[in-house]
Amino acid sequence: MLDIQSPRRTVARYLPLTVVVFLAFSCDQGQRAASGLQCDPHPADVATRDFADAFVPLQPLVFRTTDPNPVLSVRALSVSPSGHLLVTDSRSGDLKLVDGDGRIIRAIGRAGEGPGEFTALFDAAFLSDDRIVALDGGRVLATLFDSEGEVLTTFQLREQLDPRVVVPIDDSAFLIGGLVGGLEGGNHLARIYSLDGSVSESFLPADQLLFDTGAIVDRVWGVALPGGSVALGLAITPAVHLFSESGAHICTQASEPPQWAQLLPRDEPAAMDAATRAWIQQATLSGGAAYAGGSLYRQYGSSGEDGVSLLAEYDDRLNLQNIYTSPPGRLVGADADTLFFLGEETVAETRLLRYQPGRRP
């Protein structure tokens, strides 16, 4: 996940890459054509509010490095129907099962190349029955654990070139976001899998330019919404796409939220020269996304020298409701009522901050 709280590190990470992605549904020749429908455009008078005036802080969860099986870094977070937290700890290369008070119940998996092990742990999430799907981007495979952390099955994500995020659909299917196939395999960015590893749908078409230039997509983000829909997008583009749980395109929110700066001019996907570096340094990059309290939240912020972090709030039809300034950290997940932000990470502890919507006029 992009660390938009650390703009210099983000820029350094992106400078070696030529990153150009446009979502042009008309260019796709895959099995599922997009409807082309646009969501309602953003209103001109979207309110901008300070985060602290709109959200109520809860007691933070503090993980100390002296604890057994300590949480060292929170890449992503999932909350089970029973209230347990699943922390994707990319630094230790395992998952941490945590209770609602922040006590670590157990570690699941570990770094390695055997069953239940990870070479590059990108994401993990609870299914609706408390089983866990974990994503190893290094070996391009998914592992299914039971609720106790025992391995049930492991399978390759066939033709999934760059898997980044896993989104539960129900207790028998999940979505993987990332590059799928290539010129021969269909230029899609999302794929739905069953628990036996079979593919039911591939969708979210990417522009052919993505493959002609060998561009790299750092992250596809996705969030399950009520009523069986899924919001999907890319970290480097403002568009948010709404799909059904079967991959049918509902609409695309193409309006740019306030203070968004396009990553690269649409007419110049040029090589990495000085001008391109300058564009990237001033580009908008988005971080986490999550659903809580009846709203979809997407964090974003410029990687430029004067870049600021912002939080956009949408309803479940992708209508922009509010923009919040000064969010307290990096958005890593949510449950039905609470947003979770990664706070300070030090050699002594990691803080997970919790906020609920509540101070609305």
Describe the protein's architecture and organization.
The chain is mainly β and about 350 residues long. Helix content is about 5%, strand content about 45%. The chain has helices at about 5-15, 50-55, 210, 275-280, and strands at about 45-50, 55, 60-65, 75-80, 85-90, 95-100, 105-110, 110, 115-120, 120-125, 130-135, 140-145, 150-155, 160-170, 175-180, 190-195, 200-205, 220-225, 230-235, 240-245, 250-255, 285-290, 295-300, 310-315, 320-325, 330-335, 340-345, 350-355. It has a five-stranded mixed beta sheet. Strands 2, 3, 26, 27 and 28 form a five-stranded antiparallel beta sheet that branches. Strands 4-5-6-7 form a four-stranded antiparallel beta sheet, with no helix packed on it. Strand 26 and strand 27 form a beta hairpin. The longest helix is centred in the first third of the chain and has 8 residues, at about 5-15. The protein starts with 6 loop residues before the first helix and ends with a strand.
Helix content range: under 10%
Number of strands: 28
Q: What gyration radius follows from the Cα positions, in whole Å?
A: 19 Å
Uncertain stretches of 5 or more adjacent residues: 1-33
Instruction: Report the major sheet.
Output: 5 strands, mixed
Overall pLDDT metric: 82
CATH architecture: 6 Propeller
Q: What is the count of distinct domains?
A: 1
Distinct helical segment count = 4
Which topology does CATH recognise?
Answer: Neuraminidase
Structural class assignment: mainly beta
Task: Kindly summarize this structure in a few lines.
This protein has 361 residues and is mainly beta.
